[in-house]
Amino acid sequence: MSRQRKPALTMFADHDAYIAEAPENLRPLLVRLRAQLARALPDAEEVIAYKMPGFRIGKSIIAGYAAFSKQCGLYLFPSAITSHADDIAAAGLKSTKTGVTFSPSQPIPDALVRKLALASRKDQNL
To answer: Which residues form the YdhG-like domain (predicted)?
Structure first.
């Protein structure tokens, strides 16, 4: 039995390169999410961390995002997810301990992105 090798994960130079390589139908969601995070965290630096785009203040990654084959994810500190679990559920979105997933048919509301980003920042005392 032969094993198929998985392709190596690509290291992206910046957010633009990451978005350009994402599935075409998800790119508008990523562009919008990036802009929302930039507005919510105006003093954050855009970085690539853990092979995905993120927003860093000091040494802390406050928020990150990723694209998969059919959905996107927004990643934050667990306390930000916990403190807004009702808002996430009310938006019809699924969450894990550190992330919220969304798709073109069920995008993440702008106000929720802001709340989550600010909660994630607050939880890091930044």
So the answer is: 27-117
Is 12 strand, coil or helix? Answer: coil
| HSE-CB of 1 using CA atoms within 13 angstroms | 1
Residue type, 100: V
Backbone angles phi, psi at 22, to 5 degrees: -70, 160
Residue type, 11: M
The 3-state secondary structure of 26-83, one letter per residue:
HHHHHHHHHHHHHHHCCCCEEEEECCEEEEEECCEEEEEEEECCCCEEEECCHHHHHH
Q: Which two tokens stand for residue 42?
A: 């105006």
Instruction: Decide: 34 and 52 in contact? Cβ < 8 Å.
Output: no
Q: How many helices (H) and strands (E) in the chain?
A: 5, 6
The pLDDT tens digits for 1-53 are 444 544 445 678 899 999 999 999 999 999 999 999 999 999 999 999 988 99
Beta bridge partners of 48: 53
In this predicted structure, what is the pLDDT of residue 76? 96
